[in-house]
Amino acid sequence: MADIKKVLIVEDEIGVQITLEDRLTAEGYKVSVCGDGIKGEEIAKSGEHDLVLLDVMLPGRDGFTICRNLRKSGSEIPILMLTARNTNIDTVMGLKVGADDYLAKPFDMQILLARIEALLRRAASGKNSAHAESGDIAGSNGTKSGGIIKFGDFVLDMDRGILEQRTGDGNSAVIELNAQEYKLLVYLVLHNDRIISRNAVLDDVWGYESEITTRTVDVHIAKLRQRLGESERPKHILTYRGRGYKFELKN
What we know:
Elements: E1 6-10, H1 14-26, E2 30-34, H2 37-45, E3 51-55, H3 63-72, E4 79-83, H4 88-96, E5 101-104, H5 109-124, E6 143-145, E7 148-151, E8 154-157, E9 162-166, E10 172-175, H6 179-190, H7 198-206, H8 214-227, E11 237-240, E12 244-247
Parallel strand pairs: 1-2, 1-3, 3-4, 4-5
Antiparallel strand pairs: 6-7, 7-8, 8-9, 9-10, 11-12
Helix pairs in contact: 2-3, 6-7, 6-8, 7-8
């Protein structure tokens, strides 16, 4: 008799929980469900499951942090991340912190089942993908350590999801960023080796919507420069007229 595979669903939307649990159970999987990020991470670390379906937006702790923590703890459990948005920056961030695959909602159930089967086969054959560390995203001009990127007087700590500025007394202060500003900053850092057009930023960070224009990008870039104290003389977020923006990881 074949082993029954155990799948952990970490998802807070009740409707999605029920749909996934019913279908996976019907397909012969043993299913556990958790709607809280912190508890979900604890269950995933127990080693009792063969695969995790992990939502990005969760109460208590987000999916990116959970995934990163699992990999740091040495867990090689296959992780398939789920999100309500299909943007390149979310995909890049998910894979960088160690996810094996990524699927945007709403998804086709047959595609999800195929992805699950492929990940389980890969794990069973000992060919589970090597997981990229978040530190791999830094270019050669900045310094990096795990999920920490340093540039100038700033420290982008992606393990904690915060930006800090080092002060003259040797301490540091947290720079308050809203969710969109933080996502934009991470995106720019991830692509520090190239000039990125406004359209590319709009599509990847916001997701293409007809009522949103590239002016939105300019406004948020201006706000982010203000957060960095570089409104008058940009040092890290540079404008290339007619081409777009480039992030410089220079000290």
